[in-house]
Amino acid sequence: AQSVTQLDSQVPVFEEAPVELRCNYSSSVSVYLFWYVQYPNQGLQLLLKYLSGSTLVKGINGFEAEFNKSQTSFHLRKPSVHISDTAEYFCAVSANAGGTSYGKLTFGQGTILTVHP
Amino acid sequence: EAGVTQSPTHLIKTRGQQATLRCSPISGHTSVYWYQQALGLGLQFLLWYDEGEERNRGNFPPRFSGRQFPNYSSELNVNALELEDSALYLCASRQGALSTDTQYFGPGTRLTVL
After folding, report:
1. Which of A1, B8, B15, B68 is most buried by its number of CB atoms within 10 A?
2. Does B45 contact chain A (CB < 8 Å)?
3. A1-35: pLDDT as tens digits
4. Among residues A6, A31, A5, which one has the least CA distance to residue A112?
5. All domains of chain B, ordered by start, with CATH?
6. Are B3 and B103 in contact (CB under 8 A)?
7. For chain A, which residues make up each domain, given as ranges?
8. Residues 6-65 of A with CB under 8 A from B
């Protein structure tokens, strides 16, 4: 089974400041990693995903994340945030194997990013 | 290209009733997922359908059930509603059955059980 821990439930930052949203995972099998964003009263939108290869993944809206296998982490970063980045961010994993975890996404509890002017 | 659509947007039921939620996947997608986003419990996997068959099921009681139709749209049925079933139910679709493929989410159905 997999589990995902997002270390911060809320992250307040000022506009144009850098931000890092932290995500750690646990799994007995290899996984694929995802970050999704949820704006108020909307569904989830994929920001980026790590499948294999380069550990630094670039996504939409200027976000990037780095996969660290030894620390089982997949932290999300943005060098300069905008007011419009205010949303809830979810880290998720998908097992790269069969069994009961096959096919589904396991999500963290979410991090609410609030960007202040 | 149209995204994943869900209906209704909001649904209000009383305890003990049945609720039916509907999802239309992106054209060409054969896999449909259902997730529950309940306050304080986060996003939890409910069901996965692919090519008309149930492929996996989350840790939910049997009164949560569903089906996938030949056109790949899907229904989620919740019987004997309980207050704690109040949540946002999200549907996602995926082009195939590979875990590397992205799941695309709909806007959700907000179910309120009174």
Report:
1. B68
2. yes
3. 889 999 999 999 999 999 999 999 998 888 899 99
4. A6
5. 19-113 (2.60.40.10)
6. no
7. 2-116
8. 32, 34, 36, 41-46, 49, 51
